[in-house]
Amino acid sequence: MATTVRTPFWISLLLLGFVASPAAAEILLDGAPIETSRAIFLPDHAESKGFHMMPKEPRLARDADGNLRFLFLQYVGARDKASGAIVHFLVDYGLSDAERQAAERQLQNRVPGAKVLGDVVFTDGTFNVISASAQMGSETRTIHGESRRAPLLPGHQAAVAMALEGKASTLLKKSFEKKTSDVSVQFMLTYQGLSPAYRAILRIDWDKVYKHRSTKASFGIPIVARATIEKSFESLVESGAVTLDVVGDDTEMDELLQTAYGTLLSMMFEATPRPPNEKPDKPGKLGKFLGLMHNVGNFGYKMREVRREGHYTVDLTRRKRGTRQVVMAGNISGDLRAHKDDRRYFDVVDIADPDLEKRTIDVVIDGDLGELYADYVNFVGVRLTRTRDDGTVATAEGKLFRQDFAEFEQEGGRISLPYLRLGDAAPGWLDYELTPVWSFRGGLEVLGEPIRTRQSAVTLSPPFGFHGVQVTANEDNLMEHDLTGVEAHFRHEYAGVRREKRVLILEDQPLTAQYRYVGEKHDPSYEVRLIFHHDDGGRTTTAWRRESTLFLNAIYDPDAAEPSP
């Protein structure tokens, strides 16, 4: 005989797996910001008077002694005619302690009782240099640092170097005497926060549920099929016994339905083992959720003896984590106008001096820096060393990071390493040694062989090879031996580190898979074993064997494999 109980609200929460809102401070996305003279405050998602602070604009950085980190070095040729200039400066977007305190006072004047919970934490960003002088056609050399990764913490600095010729250098120098110069820096920074995604209310009328024909039909049945449960739940929704009201974004409706159905499943049914000889039924739309609760092949469900009554209501309101981008721009002229005659920041040199003769070595990386490089390589680094006439060693370094591979190829595909002659005798000052380093994902670093040359361009060939194995299964073979899939377990060793990876082929998916790996350039060999999965849940595994073929047929042979534990 069925027993009737009332469902406590807290039980419903446990069944749904609800957790408390995160205690950590989070930004409320799309909330109204408050601007002060030097800062912007973004509201917190939980504290009504809580805010997160970020600087309003970037500016020239200063060293520990308060000096500007800026240099404008103009070089001249014959008859003192200006020939060009190099400009180097560092920028940041931090605030001094005094500026922070002033910004907080301005905030509290606007919002009495306001509290600063911390700085805005940026997760990604880039910066750009904006200058018309630096875009004057053929007379402009280049800008280094433009459109690169921005520093993500206040007080951290980004470096910019510009090389200009002729009129462009003269115009830029003149612009620094004005209130607004011809150099501005723009940061584009990304931060995370929370925003309401949707509001959903689940309501269950237990009287209607137990009076519904689909519920009555389930009593007394030893094992209720999942397909029957799914149709029953859908029918309960259509009849109004169960309602799910959603306000806002409904893109996660499937997840909501699974949560609601999972609650009903736990409250109305209990899992029961299937008889060994009974063939399991296949899951439908709800199968993913049911599979998380029990092994769907070995369990069924039966109606609980305990009945519930009354009305059940729970608020399924959730928030989504999202990102927003903020753009801050600032002109660097403000701190420079008072220093136009200060040789710490503005100076002129004579390029006829042999000490200033300059050379640039271009390093080209062999191969297509595409998907394969990005999958395996963290960065490619090069270190140039040169022994000077006085015995000292001069060095220059360059690195190319994984996230910049695509942009690197678009810009010509080379790392440039400049160095100065500094008075050394010819032709010895042209000699140098170049050492490459390859950093792989997972922490492995491989040093390439040093290259001794005096050439102005060097091509780096990777000391490794990209290899691939195509694994193919046979449909007739899988069906003949009642197999649900086959797993190829690979392992290989490179640079003293053993790596392992598995690829899986399932019977109801394309019967092919690819294993890609980095190994010795001219040795594609690897070790492999095959693991065959049977319909009854058993596994059969072959012994490890060494192969070098690029095409591997995963064919089940009962005589060549042993059952796995």
Describe the structure.
With 565 residues, the chain is an alpha+beta fold. Helices cover 18% and strands 44% of the residues. The strands form nine sheets. Strands 5, 6, 7, 10, 12 and 20 form a six-stranded mixed beta sheet that branches. Strands 9, 11, 13, 14, 18 and 19 form a six-stranded antiparallel beta sheet that branches. The model is unreliable at 1-23, 137-147 and 284-296 (pLDDT under 50).
Task: Provide keyphrases for this structure.
flat; 565 residues; single chain
Task: Give me a quick take on this structure.
Helix content is 18%, strand content 44%. It is α+β, with helices and mostly antiparallel strands and 565 residues long.
